[in-house]
Automatic annotation (TrEMBL):
<dbReference type="Pfam" id="PF00072">
    <property type="entry name" value="Response_reg"/>
</dbReference>
<dbReference type="GO" id="GO:0000160">
    <property type="term" value="P:phosphorelay signal transduction system"/>
</dbReference>
<keyword id="KW-0597">Phosphoprotein</keyword>
<dbReference type="InterPro" id="IPR001789">
    <property type="entry name" value="Sig_transdc_resp-reg_receiver"/>
</dbReference>
<protein>
    <submittedName>
        <fullName>Response regulator</fullName>
    </submittedName>
</protein>
<dbReference type="InterPro" id="IPR011006">
    <property type="entry name" value="CheY-like_superfamily"/>
</dbReference>
<feature type="domain" description="Response regulatory">
    <location>
        <begin position="6"/>
        <end position="120"/>
    </location>
</feature>
<feature type="modified residue" description="4-aspartylphosphate">
    <location>
        <position position="56"/>
    </location>
</feature>
Length: 129
């Protein structure tokens, strides 16, 4: 069942991207693409129509919050933000952009997997209605 959901990973750090992809694929998730900035997130979303995007906030070219605003105008993909910052103003801004959850880096598997599972279960419920 996990393999039916398309997931995209966006982070400017290649090691973080690789770790996230590996964690998810080992659990049977379908990571269809990854990219290094918000601009790539927008184009990969148009290409793959993902169910979930896991995206860093602070990136070159286009940050994750800006990309989220664009993506939410074009797609119903759920967005899980990754941040090195747990500032209240950032969390509030993320909520206004339509982010469904965020995790503070470094992201551990025991935090990532329950968050992904919860988001995709909600996605499944909305698709079945």
């Amino acid at each position: 069942m996990r393999h039916r959901y398309r997931i995209i990973i966006i982070d400017d750090d290649p090691i973080t991207r690789m770790d996230l992809v590996e964690m998810l694929q080992e659990q049977g998730y379908n990571v269809v693409a990854d990219g290094k900035n918000g601009e790539e997130a927008v184009s990969l979303t148009q290409l793959w129509d993902p169910h979930l995007i896991i995206m860093d906030v602070k990136m070159p070219v286009m940050d994750g919050l800006t990309a989220t605003g664009i993506i939410k105008g074009q797609s119903d993909a759920s967005i899980l933000l990754l941040t090195a910052y747990s500032q209240k103003d950032l969390v509030a801004k993320a909520k206004t952009k339509g982010v469904c959850a965020y995790l503070v880096k470094p992201v551990m598997e025991e935090e990532l997997l329950p968050a992904v599972e919860t988001i995709l279960l909600e996605k499944q419920s909305s698709l079945e209605k």
